[in-house]
Design goal:
- This protein starts with a helix and ends with a helix.
- By secondary structure, it is mostly helical.
- It is about 75% helix and about 0% strand.
- The chain has 22 helices and no strands.
- Helix 7 (about 165-190) packs antiparallel against helix 8 (about 190-205) and helix 7 runs parallel beside helix 22.
- Residues about 5-10 have low confidence and may be disordered.
- The chain is globular.
Length: about 525
């Protein structure tokens, strides 16, 4: 056999291997990630179940109808029409977000308030004032502190005194830019039809509106998910080597800054690397990994050095003050709060006098809790964490809007956890969230037909990694908020994939019928 024939056989074997691995991946996703989503859906609060069921059926029916119309008229969705619709949606979204800031803002408190006060104080007086060296204890918030400091300094240069609501407008910019770049990503990867589907789903996603007054890591970090994805899609499609290098380095730097803002952003880097390994040859794999990993690590080290140089964190204090990573693992095993924040765990670690002592207490606690669980107990605890993480369609925003509200309008109490008619919004948000999760599960089922590790698989990899991380770390529903652009994009893709699947089946049935008819007319 000649060389060409051998190469073709090798390529065929490689293709079959990748197809098998892709199907295996979607099967694992369906069993684990799908299970987490189902647990979340069935654990939504029963007291508003009937109303959520009504909303859910309505959302699903409307979504499928819109999807059918878009699928049927996909060729008519031109760039011009998509731009016009996007512009109209953007204007309406900004208006609703500004109204939310005006009517639903709260007094800055908890970590969100601490970061705001520190950033404003640093810009105006050149110092950080927080309770007992906050940023030395929780250095994971230095990223958002740096972002706010830069923004507030720009306001200072313009002669604008820093006010609380200024951060809210920065938040709007970051949220809407994240939606825009995800729209551009979907358009570049899947086309205008799916981009329009994503635009509709994102516009109707109320947390993007209600998060406007709460500018913390959950929403600010969204841009570091969407923008790197869009640049990655650009890198895949551009032809010049130098452009690819610039784009990959830019992606690496954005992901590094995003990780400093919210640690879970690093999961996207892993998903990108897995995609590269599955789809590139060995030379491109090595080059791409170096271009993504080295700038990522370099920026991270430079950022830490800059934070210390500016006096925000004093290295000599860290040994006495900083909380070890084991603290969040320890809290993640707490059964009282289903792996969420627990005051008793915090107080226990806080009372220790050194980093090593905190580490020792946390490690001993982890061992004790794992021993008490046993294998069945661990599975049960993971199920509890999955329910706690994925059952809340408000993504914790109703709780945050209830903390020291600046206005008390009865009509808008519907959006606050303690509001008189909050059950209406909870039912609405839970129903929308349940439909999104159901569409993600549908996408995983349809993904079993895939023959290669494509962009869809890469996005599911990111969600899979996030879910696994939260099952061992401290968890909360707001911790998945920065990944909602990916969730909504996949949900919109799933709707159109359903109609593609139906179309393929109908076409296949017609071809079979035609073949049978031909065979009857012209027998052998």
């Amino acid at each position: 056999m000649d060389t060409i024939g051998v190469n073709l056989i090798d390529l065929e074997k490689e293709s079959k291997a990748r197809a098998f691995l892709t199907k295996a991946f979607f099967a694992v996703c369906l069993l684990t990630l799908g299970s987490f989503y189902i647990i979340g859906m069935i654990n939504m609060t029963p007291s508003r179940g009937w109303l959520a069921a009504i909303f859910g059926v309505a959302f699903a029916a409307l979504g499928l109808l819109i999807g059918f119309l878009i699928h049927r008229n996909a060729d008519k969705i031109t760039n011009r029409k998509l731009i016009i619709l996007s512009a109209v949606a953007a204007v309406m979204l900004v208006f609703l977000q500004v109204m939310t800031i005006y009517y639903l803002s709260v007094e800055p408190s908890w970590d969100f308030g601490g970061v705001f006060v520190s950033a404003r104080e640093y810009v105006e007086r050149g110092r950080i004032i927080t309770h007992e060296h906050y940023f030395e204890r929780f250095s994971n918030n230095t990223g958002i502190l740096a972002i706010e400091i830069v923004f507030f300094k720009l306001l200072n240069l313009l002669g604008i005194p820093v006010q609380y609501y200024h951060g809210s407008f920065l938040n709007i910019l970051f949220i809407d830019a994240a939606v825009l770049f995800m729209l551009l990503f979907v358009r570049k990867v899947w086309g205008n039809a799916r981009a329009l589907m994503f635009l509709i789903i994102a516009f109707c996603f109320t947390p993007y509106i209600l998060y406007a007054p709460i500018y913390y890591t959950d929403s600010i970090s969204m841009i570091f998910i969407s923008l790197p994805l869009y640049l990655f899609a650009c890198a895949l499609k551009c032809g010049k080597t130098w452009q690819k290098i610039v784009l990959l380095v830019s992606i690496s730097l954005l992901l590094s800054m995003g990780t400093k803002t919210k640690g879970t952003v690093a999961i996207l880097l892993v998903a990108l690397l897995i995609y590269i390994i599955f789809n590139f040859d060995i030379k491109k794999i090595i080059a791409s990994i170096l271009l993504l990993v080295i700038p990522f690590l370099g920026f991270s080290l430079t950022f830490d050095y800059a934070i210390e140089a500016k006096g925000i964190i004093k290295k000599e204090n860290i040994e006495q003050i900083k909380f070890p990573p084991e603290y969040w693992l320890y809290m993640g095993l707490n059964t009282e709060t289903s792996g969420g924040f627990n005051q008793s765990d915090f107080d226990e670690i806080y009372a220790a006098e050194s980093y090593s002592e905190r580490q020792e207490i946390a490690r001993a606690g982890i061992s004790e809790r794992l021993s008490d669980f046993g294998f069945a107990g661990i599975l049960g605890h993971i199920a509890d964490k999955a329910a706690y993480t994925y059952r809340d369609g408000t993504y914790f925003i109703s709780v945050m809007l209830s903390r020291q509200p600046l206005k008390d309008l009865r009509l808008l109490q519907i959006f606050r956890m303690d509001g008189q008619n909050s059950f209406i919004y909870y039912a609405w948000a839970d129903a929308y969230h349940a439909v999104i999760l159901a569409l993600l599960i549908t996408g995983m089922i349809l993904g079993l037909r895939k023959r290669g590790f494509d962009i869809t698989a890469m996005l599911y990899t990111a969600l899979f990694g996030l879910a696994l991380f939260l099952m061992i770390w401290e968890t909360r529903s707001r911790y998945i908020f920065n990944y909602t652009p990916i969730m909504l994009a996949l949900a919109g893709n799933s709707i159109l994939e359903i109609f593609e699947f139906i179309k393929t089946k109908i076409k296949g049935a017609r071809n079979d019928e035609s073949d049978l008819h031909s065979a009857q007319q012209f027998p052998d």
